[in-house]
Amino acid sequence: MRWLVLGFIAGLAGLAGCGNANVVTPVEVAQNYVFAVAEGNYPGACALLESGTRTRLTSGTRSSCPRLFARCLPNASTTLSHDQAQLLYANADLRVSGRRAVVRLSGPAVARATKAVTLVNQHARWRLTSPGRAITRCVSRLERRRRHADGRHPARG
Question: What is the pTM of this model?
Answer without folding.
Answer: 0.75
